[in-house]
């Protein structure tokens, strides 16, 4: 799994986050190696999604340190002093991290092709024609090359989520975050999305996946993290953790999910 | 009440499992009051046509139709009226374009995280929505009484450039300025409503692609907000077209001022009001048609199939010689061809 020596893709040290008086994350220590697929499981409200959003600068952390690819999230360190990043710097960091949302969040006013090309063209200033050609490649990869001219609401949920993955891939991310990517899907559509994600994992993409799909976590995940009440309760090889849970809390969670 | 007794008589025969279901034959519900209502409307319609077209003038020593349509015809395309129409269109276009720009700016300011900026926008809206537009027009027309000269320079310091306010703030500029500033206040609320109606996930998805807040607003949020913004903006434009008639109080020769000045000479007040009304109606009709196509443009992606335009519908009917096809049927026809 994690090859010692190289920079971890994500590293968290005592990460804290509160919303008002509610403490959502109570000191998270985690490391995701490059090429690793880490699955985050836990009950809703346990802080998994918040942790994912912190990695992508969608929320600000209150205490602790978070690094992505060796660089601090949200701050620049000069000597002992921390400087908050400017909007523009945050944007450029975000463009290297892709995120796939539970509710897809495709842009409904744009065709499938434009959904995939808008990032590369408007953010990375790629040539529109080249971006359109690349979009076809990514849509082919998620099995939707025939839907290139369709609009999102003409597609099924599973197709929309696959377009969202193609949109994320088009940014050539070094890290992909999945926030319950199959939770809003009909059961028979879950498989097609998981298949695409399995393909990405096989190609060595670094992925952090918040999921309730224990089968996926067991087969595809390199590591499994169980979060409860804002803390990491258990982590390790998915097969071992799922076969032999150490904490009573995880045992009762698994008995409800499996 | 006779339907009740009949309603029990139409038990559909239960057919065997294999055969096709027999469609229900039932006596439809009667609507006698619809017939009465239709008759009343028909009589009222006939009376309206009669008084508009056929009845004669009641004025002594005069002849001709009651409404004096020949006088209406004489002035409808007179150069003075046409000039007024042009002024009205100019004022409407300038005020709406400026109003929309101010509105977008104020809406973004009100949604700003900075309390100062959002309070400034709130104060602007409070002031310009809270005073009558007529007062604002007269105010800007008389602004030279407060500020005879305009100086450009360093605040509280020397001025680099001075100009006579009356020379730049001509009546038409004052009118356009008043209408634009007022419209901006109303438009900002419309734009703000559109922006907050767009799901937050949209901006989040845009940010996760690395878009700045401004790009996300311009490329993702505003285009989706347009669907909600356009109908009330169409309303505002039509309202503005008619509100421009208020500028006649500051001697701008718009459409209403033109017809008023003609009727001041010939006393044909009603006829010239009809002339003005016909022009206002014609212009609002054009605007309504424009709004229809604009809404259709921004409906992309939100409705599964766009409805046909009236022209497309007409062409289709001519080509196929058949009655109107609903978009759903249309899609099924389209699917056959693929």
Helix content of chain B: 55-70%
- Multimeric organization: heterodimer
Q: What is the H/E order of chain B?
A: HHHHHHEEHHHHHHHH
- What coarse outline of chain B follows from CA principal-axis ratios? flat
- Helix/strand structural class of chain A: alpha/beta
- Please give the CATH class of the domain at 69-298 in chain B: Mainly Alpha
> What's the shape of chain A?
globular
The total count of strands of chain A amounts to 12
Distance between the termini of chain A: 26 Å
CATH architecture of the domain at 69-298 in chain B: Orthogonal Bundle
The H-and-E topology of chain A, N to C, reads as EEEHEEEEHEHHHEHEHEEHH
Secondary structure tally: strands of chain B: 2
Radius of gyration of chain B: 29 Å
The helix tally of chain A amounts to 9
Query: Which range does the strand content of chain B fall in?
Result: under 5%
**Spatial sequence of strands, sheet with the most strands of chain B:** 1-2
In terms of DSSP E residues, the strand content of chain A is 25-35%
- What name does CATH use for the topology of the domain at 69-298 in chain B? MetI-like fold
SSE-based structural type of chain B: mainly alpha
Major sheet size, sense and barrel closure of chain B:
2 strands, antiparallel
Average pLDDT of chain B works out at 86
